[in-house]
Amino acid sequence: MKKIAVLTSGGDAPGMNACIRSIVLTADHYELEVIGYKDGYNGLIDQEFKLLVPANVTNIIQRGGTILKSGRCDDFHTEESGRAAAKNLQDLNVDALLVIGGNGSFRGAHHLCKYYKGQVIGLPGTIDNDISGTDATIGYYTAIETALDPIDKVRDTADAFERIFLIEVMGRHAGFIALNAAVASAVDRVVVPEACNDIDLEVDNIIEHLHAVYSQQGISSYIVVMSENLLPGGGNVAGENAH
Ligand SMILES: Nc1ncnc2c1ncn2[C@@H]1O[C@H](COP(=O)(O)OP(=O)(O)OP(=O)(O)O)[C@@H](O)[C@H]1O
Ligand SMILES: O=P(O)(O)OC[C@H]1O[C@](O)(CO)[C@@H](O)[C@@H]1O
Fold first, then answer.
1. 143-166 pLDDT, tens per residue?
2. Does 135 fall in a domain?
3. What pTM, to 2 d.p., does this model score?
4. How many angstroms does the Cα of residue 183 sit away from the middle of ligand 2?
5. DSSP label at 78?
6. Which of 45, 50, 85, 105 could form a disulfide with 9, with the two C-beta atoms 3.0–4.6 Å apart?
7. What range does the domain containing 26 cover?
8. For residues 17 and 65, what is the distance between their CA atoms, to the nearest angstrom?
9. Ligand 1 atom 9: the closest Cα is on which residue?
């Protein structure tokens, strides 16, 4: 193997840069050439890439985002795009493509395998932690830490003003961030997509619980953590409706 390519795809995740750095430095050690495709599968289809050498990855280990940029690419679902991507890799004599991304990006990698004869390797990089067979994806622990900070701060205000707060965190289809941030911050209630079939019923349950907590314990603040996108219109609309 003489040449490899790397791309970052889907939502950016902290640690993607550290991962790119490791790939480039390891490849340099084994005397492999590395190219980086821009904007996820968009760059692969458009043949937009740059050569990556150790100088390109200096001082990026601590930086969020991704130096290759990321992107979602609806076109990549088609056979035509799969074939175009494979041709682009073959034209450049790329022996292996490394995809850093989440479950969707892995599906994309699988799609590419139908047309590309080289190796395709997935590196699980997503804040959502929703890749089977991986204990913790790249970026997941940082995402929990990031969510915890505002939750802890909101607790101060909830207590001081005797208020109810609903905090939405990322994870549109996966509740790992919500669940673990909620447990770590000991909030009153957590709602995750995996355990929520009926959001109206869920809201009714929360209101019932809130009343019970108020009357039984006299607690005057209450915090709910919820995965984004569960409430149609978001937390503000739900709050208005609850009034
Ligand atoms: N079935 C599929 N076939 C081909 N390509 C796909 C498929 N599913 C996803 N992709 C490609 O992977 C890209 C990223 O997928 P997606 O938006 O689901 O993010 P992800 O990798 O799951 O990361 P995250 O969930 O952290 O945002 C898509 O925009 C698309 O280009
Ligand atoms: O708004 P977009 O681009 O669809 O991204 C949101 C999704 O991406 C993620 O942030 C993953 O990176 C999910 O938590 C969320 O569901």
1. 999 999 999 999 999 999 999 999
2. no
3. 0.94
4. 22
5. S
6. 105
7. 3-127
8. 7
9. 104
